[in-house]
Amino acid sequence: MDPAELLALDARHVWHPYGPMPGRVAPLLVTGASGVRLRLADGRELIDGMSSWWAAIHGYRHPVLDAALAEQAGRMSHVMFGGLTHEPAIRLATKLAELTPPGLEHVFLCDSGSVSVEVAVKMCLQYWRSLGRGEKRRMLTWRGGYHGDTFHPMSVCDPDGGMHSLWRGVLPEQVFVPEPPAGFGAPLNPSYVDTLAQAIEEHADELACVIVEPVVQGAGGMRFHAPGYLRVLRELTERHDVLLVFDEIATGFGRTGRLFAAEHAEVTPDVLCLGKALTGGYLSMAAALCTPRVADGISRGEVPVLAHGPTFMGNPLTSAVANASIDLLLSQDWRGSVRRIESALRDGLAAAREVPGVADVRVLGAIGVVQLDHEVDMAAATKVATDCGVWLRPFRDLVYAMPPFVCTDAEVRTIAEAMTAVAAAA
């Protein structure tokens, strides 16, 4: 179809994420993607600085992942997971149990990151109900977080900093503490540790779990915090008999320089959520992993099953690609790639510190952030970035990038130059 006709149909029928209907700004029409580049209908090519919302860590049309997809499609694309099982899902669950922090032995495969948080919350709530402690049904988290767009995950997103405030009075009211002090390498703040301790102690009898994004708070503000706070949470939750959930949907599979962000703190949560890069950005899949304690507790209840079962749970096609993506990652020097990207982002974004209106520049692993002292004009920012040959998706006061791990140094420099140009023009 003619690109103009496609965009007209898009405007008439397609409701894009976080946008009005009809949309006010026409999206860019992508006709193909290869390596780290998106090909547009108008002939331009853009370096994807976003890894397609942080998922496409290997880039696009990777021959290993393409082959895994084709091979599995030749066997079976889907079969229900209730009462049936298959090798790709068994291999994937086993692989995840082996790779994640020790003790996370049981794997629930689901459809998306937000659903994995729903499953994690349900695990925690059902655990306590099974033990006869149904009063433990609230969650504690810190502000500045983001855990997804379905209802229970929205309830533990920052209550004031985003669209989720729209649902105040509808969502369950959770317990919030202030956001963790900024700085991955910063020393622990004793006053903040006391705040965590007091809040967990005060609410322990009603808390099902504490849920946080370890080390990096993603869409809630792209903030980094010291791993030591995770050790504090682990000690406090164990002391007060509260479950601990880590949401690693954005940070899992090497993004912060460790395979999982929890490894920076050397702690194991009771439940771990994974998604995004799980399939290398090819297909939607997520997972919620838990310890035997959680699984055994649920199994002892009046309803001795986890009350959840998505139609496409453990989809063979998606499982096969996830296996191939993880194997591909582990077969390469991914740590060296992430360190190289981190270094290139630090060097490339140094100039952004001198741009008027820039409040902060921070880099951790393959994550680069330029924070402004004002909100970004999305349409203007998109034009500046695409003029530089880069696809970025700023939000609020943040211009950030999470490049694919296969980016060259030159491509990372181009991404950093585009981020700096957007900041200068904002």
From TrEMBL:
<dbReference type="Pfam" id="PF00202">
    <property type="entry name" value="Aminotran_3"/>
</dbReference>
<protein>
    <recommendedName>
        <fullName>Adenosylmethionine-8-amino-7-oxononanoate aminotransferase</fullName>
        <ecNumber>2.6.1.62</ecNumber>
    </recommendedName>
</protein>
<keyword id="KW-0045">Antibiotic biosynthesis</keyword>
<keyword id="KW-0949">S-adenosyl-L-methionine</keyword>
<dbReference type="InterPro" id="IPR015424">
    <property type="entry name" value="PyrdxlP-dep_Trfase"/>
</dbReference>
<feature type="binding site">
    <location>
        <begin position="310"/>
        <end position="311"/>
    </location>
    <ligand>
        <name>pyridoxal 5'-phosphate</name>
    </ligand>
</feature>
<feature type="binding site">
    <location>
        <position position="53"/>
    </location>
    <ligand>
        <name>substrate</name>
    </ligand>
</feature>
<feature type="binding site">
    <location>
        <position position="247"/>
    </location>
    <ligand>
        <name>pyridoxal 5'-phosphate</name>
    </ligand>
</feature>
<dbReference type="GO" id="GO:0030170">
    <property type="term" value="F:pyridoxal phosphate binding"/>
</dbReference>
<feature type="binding site">
    <location>
        <position position="146"/>
    </location>
    <ligand>
        <name>substrate</name>
    </ligand>
</feature>
<feature type="binding site">
    <location>
        <position position="276"/>
    </location>
    <ligand>
        <name>substrate</name>
    </ligand>
</feature>
<dbReference type="InterPro" id="IPR005814">
    <property type="entry name" value="Aminotrans_3"/>
</dbReference>
<keyword id="KW-0093">Biotin biosynthesis</keyword>
<comment type="similarity">
    <text>Belongs to the class-III pyridoxal-phosphate-dependent aminotransferase family. BioA subfamily.</text>
</comment>
<feature type="binding site">
    <location>
        <begin position="113"/>
        <end position="114"/>
    </location>
    <ligand>
        <name>pyridoxal 5'-phosphate</name>
    </ligand>
</feature>
<comment type="pathway">
    <text>Cofactor biosynthesis; biotin biosynthesis; 7,8-diaminononanoate from 8-amino-7-oxononanoate (SAM route): step 1/1.</text>
</comment>
<dbReference type="GO" id="GO:0005737">
    <property type="term" value="C:cytoplasm"/>
</dbReference>
<keyword id="KW-0808">Transferase</keyword>
<dbReference type="InterPro" id="IPR049704">
    <property type="entry name" value="Aminotrans_3_PPA_site"/>
</dbReference>
<feature type="site" description="Participates in the substrate recognition with KAPA and in a stacking interaction with the adenine ring of SAM">
    <location>
        <position position="18"/>
    </location>
</feature>
<dbReference type="InterPro" id="IPR005815">
    <property type="entry name" value="BioA"/>
</dbReference>
<keyword id="KW-0963">Cytoplasm</keyword>
<dbReference type="InterPro" id="IPR015421">
    <property type="entry name" value="PyrdxlP-dep_Trfase_major"/>
</dbReference>
<feature type="modified residue" description="N6-(pyridoxal phosphate)lysine">
    <location>
        <position position="276"/>
    </location>
</feature>
<dbReference type="InterPro" id="IPR015422">
    <property type="entry name" value="PyrdxlP-dep_Trfase_small"/>
</dbReference>
<feature type="binding site">
    <location>
        <position position="309"/>
    </location>
    <ligand>
        <name>substrate</name>
    </ligand>
</feature>
<comment type="subunit">
    <text>Homodimer.</text>
</comment>
<feature type="binding site">
    <location>
        <position position="393"/>
    </location>
    <ligand>
        <name>substrate</name>
    </ligand>
</feature>
<dbReference type="GO" id="GO:0017000">
    <property type="term" value="P:antibiotic biosynthetic process"/>
</dbReference>
<dbReference type="GO" id="GO:0009102">
    <property type="term" value="P:biotin biosynthetic process"/>
</dbReference>
<keyword id="KW-0032">Aminotransferase</keyword>
<comment type="function">
    <text>Catalyzes the transfer of the alpha-amino group from S-adenosyl-L-methionine (SAM) to 7-keto-8-aminopelargonic acid (KAPA) to form 7,8-diaminopelargonic acid (DAPA). It is the only aminotransferase known to utilize SAM as an amino donor.</text>
</comment>
<keyword id="KW-0663">Pyridoxal phosphate</keyword>
<dbReference type="GO" id="GO:0004015">
    <property type="term" value="F:adenosylmethionine-8-amino-7-oxononanoate transaminase activity"/>
</dbReference>
